[in-house]
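Backbone-to-sequence.
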């Protein structure tokens, strides 16, 4: 039950449809699409296209996406919309030149963007409305401009260095040397034109012709290895989702190259250790220790399963849980686990349920804030830098290779019960996402919190030798954790962002939660 005096947010309630996103214009677009007769997939595509305009630090046409879609409340299908390395990109090429890793603003960090092809595929296979209609709101907003919201302004101001590295990006996003602030009107006419081309021509409007040629030319001018053939070859693919049981529910994730596997591994440990029923300090401590155990496996094994064998069944087995659970000390922090993955927090996720109870969990990302910072002015496309997740040394499971997809941190989630979908959800936040899934689901199905309250609780994340904590965590809990050996780092920026819609089948009600750490809302009707 909401307490109205502290800072808090009401749970969204509806019957016929609901959407939860990190931006009000995206949520409004999704709900308007539903009310106009579109299904959940139509609403998700329309909304994410709007987010690619109004949340430029978080997502864009130059990024990747993943989706879980459950038709009419049934079991989900998964789509992998992640992009691939250029055909000329080999670990040996970089090793010969003494390059062990690309800079975040390097063209070598740019894989072929996958999201546009994914949208087109999802629209064709699961949508009911033409793509041209779904992209109209995003085109209008890009043309006419949008008012910068508070969290968008915050992210923009904190990432000017990335934009200043590319003269084209600087001229567009920092016009006149000024960072847009809350309430400013910002227009993207070139991006509007690119969206029109996609609306008319589908994937050809992005992966062929002037848009693709412009992107390739920009990347090659900076020393990139990309070619037109790499863009022509990019295809999203439907894949079999993976799942595990958790407190009477089945939790579905996309398989590798995403880190959904790690979330499922952590859920298995969380259930074995009875994470949700613990006191607050104990629960946070155990979540930190579970994170360390699972993320070590992530950095060792996760890669593109089309090119590397990933031991999914072994990592989800009873044997793995049996071996790991006894190693977790309930009182003392284990030695820190350091990752050589690049930290980032920059993604959007959205959840939609329609009148027929079709469900979508959708996530779209350009990796770092403003991605690579490489901007193509003719098309208005800002390119991601997902290739930072590759290893450039030969021999590692996640070593860069021609046409290979890197380890991905972005993971949509979907919960089912008795063979029917009951909650699409997502927790953005880069490396945090697998931990975020476990924390959120433990709050909902272990502690009985509603989706909004489950999102609002203070967050923590064990990473890079410290336990990050939000400043809202009670001081006595922080001291308890410090006494157990955790090195505490109080975060000045929020950790992650959650969007979810829960179906109450018995009453026919929908309940939505939208993270207070973002600008967005959940809205039902």
């Amino acid at each position: 039950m909401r307490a109205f005096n502290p800072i808090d947010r009401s749970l969204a309630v509806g019957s016929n449809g609901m959407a939860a996103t990190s931006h009000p214009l995206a949520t409004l677009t999704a709900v308007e699409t539903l009310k106009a007769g579109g299904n959940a997939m139509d609403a998700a595509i329309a909304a994410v296209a709007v987010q690619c305009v109004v949340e430029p630090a978080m997502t864009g046409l130059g990024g990747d996406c993943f989706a879980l879609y459950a038709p009419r409340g049934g079991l989900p299908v998964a789509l992998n919309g992640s992009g691939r390395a250029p055909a000329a990109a080999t670990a040996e090429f970089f090793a010969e030149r003494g390059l062990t890793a690309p800079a975040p603003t390097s063209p070598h960090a740019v894989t072929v963007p996958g999201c546009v092809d994914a949208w087109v595929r999802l629209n064709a296979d699961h949508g009911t409305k033409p793509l041209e209609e779904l992209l109209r709101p995003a085109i209008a907003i890009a043309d006419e401009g949008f008012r910068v919201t508070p969290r968008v302004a915050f992210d923009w101001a904190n990432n000017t260095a990335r934009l200043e590295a590319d003269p084209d990006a600087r001229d567009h996003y920092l016009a006149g040397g000024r960072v847009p602030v809350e309430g400013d009107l910002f227009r993207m006419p070139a991006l509007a034109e690119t969206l029109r081309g996609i609306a008319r021509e589908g994937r050809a409007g992005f992966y062929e012709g002037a848009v693709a040629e412009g992107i390739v030319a920009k990347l090659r001018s900076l020393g990139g290895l990309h070619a037109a053939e790499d863009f022509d070859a990019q295809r999203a693919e439907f894949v079999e989702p993976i799942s595990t049981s958790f407190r009477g529910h089945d939790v579905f994730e996309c398989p590798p190259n995403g880190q959904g596997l790690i979330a499922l591994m952590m859920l298995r440990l969380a259930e074995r250790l009875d994470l949700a029923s613990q006191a607050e300090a104990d629960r946070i401590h155990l979540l930190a220790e579970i994170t360390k155990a699972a993320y070590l496996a992530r950095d060792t094994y996760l890669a593109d399963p089309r090119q590397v064998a990933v031991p999914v069944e072994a990592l989800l087995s009873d044997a793995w849980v049996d071996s790991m659970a006894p190693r977790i000390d309930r009182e003392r922090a284990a030695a820190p686990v350091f990752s050589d993955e690049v930290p980032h927090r920059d993604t959007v996720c959205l959840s939609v349920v329609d009148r027929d109870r079709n469900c979508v969990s959708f996530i779209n990302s350009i990796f770092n804030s403003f991605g690579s910072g490489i901007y193509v002015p003719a098309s208005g496309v800002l390119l991601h830098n997902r290739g930072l997740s590759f290893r450039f040394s030969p021999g590692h499971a996640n070593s860069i290779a021609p046409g290979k997809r890197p380890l991905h941190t972005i993971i949509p989630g979907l919960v089912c019960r008795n063979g029917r979908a009951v909650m699409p959800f997502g927790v953005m936040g880069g490396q945090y996402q697998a931990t975020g899934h476990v924390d959120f689901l433990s709050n909902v199905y272990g502690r009985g919190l509603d989706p909004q309250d489950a999102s609002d609780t203070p967050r923590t994340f064990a990473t890079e030798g410290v336990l990050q904590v939000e400043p809202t965590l009670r001081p006595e809990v922080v001291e308890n954790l410090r006494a157990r050996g955790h090195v505490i780092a109080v975060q000045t920026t929020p950790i992650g962002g959650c969007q979810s819609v829960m179906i109450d089948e018995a009453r026919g009600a929908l309940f939505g939660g939208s993270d207070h750490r973002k600008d967005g809302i959940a809205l039902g009707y």
